[in-house]
Amino acid sequence: MKRSNLKKAREELKIPEDMRTRLGSSSTPLRERSVKEAISWPKGRDFEHKRYHKIYSCGRDKVCLGKPGVESLPSFKPRNINDMRPSIFLDGRFQEKNISFVDIFGYLEQIGLEDTTALELLGALLFRDAFMLDHIEKKGVLVYSPPEPVLQELERRVPYVKESPKDIPMRIFIHFIEALALNEDVKYKTLRHIRLNEGIGRRNNLLTCTNIVAVFLHKIPIARLIGRFASQSRGVAPITQKKAFEVFPFLAGD
């Protein structure tokens, strides 16, 4: 087994105290920019002939966003003309399953059953991604670049997410979640024409995933999660920032 990189991973996940009060405001311009970039990508000639834009690759595996997506069809209400399909290619082959956030919840449970520390690392990573803390500029565009020690430790503990017909490598899984989050921001920007300074889109979805991780880790009662879902009209149950720092010590550097 590869050598543990947990200490370094812990250091990389820590969010300094002076940043914690401005997570939302500091992420707003990054969200706006990433959506603008995604909308500018050219589309295929129709739904059956998508144009795939790679956002991450590792060998012959890659994560792409295919344009146009199903919500761009005239029959879809409300129609999102900028919709994309988050897609996985493994060993160069397109994976047919259309993975949703509900599927992601199941994968998170699976990871927790294999290794609780891996799930805790992933929960902290998802919280950071909600506020785009690990996005960097590369060749003039924003790219998601999670800390390498965290990826290495996750791979060491849980190399693959089990799926048919082929298991999904951990790095591909993490970047696929990012593709889903980006498409959520594109949707809300397109349909509501607002500045992305609210909890909608990326933030609500990824913080809901973080909340579900906390439940799987038995750090939040499942009844509280169900209550959050019941009180929301958009099918999300985001964890609060205060609670996240309580239940994910990696974020506080503990």
Main sheet, how many strands, which sense, barrel? 4 strands, antiparallel
> Residue ranges: pLDDT <50 for 5 or more in a row?
none
Number of helices: 10
The structure class reads alpha+beta
Distance N terminus to C terminus?
Answer: 25 Å
What is the number of strand segments?
Answer: 8
Description:
The protein is of the alpha+beta class and 254 residues long. The chain has one domain (6-198). Helix content is 49%, strand content 14%. Helix 6 (170-192) packs across helix 7. The longest helix is centred in the C-terminal third of the chain and has 23 residues, at 170-192. The model has no long low-confidence stretch (mean pLDDT 94).
Layout of helices and strands, plus pairs?
Layout: H1 6-13, H2 23-40, E1 51-58, E2 61-67, E3 85-90, E4 93-94, H3 101-114, H4 116-130, E5 135-138, E6 141-144, H5 148-157, E7 160-161, E8 168-169, H6 170-192, H7 202-216, H8 222-231, H9 241-247, H10 249-252
Antiparallel strand pairs: 1-2, 2-3, 3-4, 5-6, 7-8
Helix pairs in contact: 1-5, 2-6, 3-4, 3-7, 4-5, 4-7, 6-7
How would you briefly describe this protein structure?
49% of the residues lie in helices and 14% in strands.
Describe the structure using short key phrases:
globular, two-stranded antiparallel sheet, about 250 residues, alpha+beta
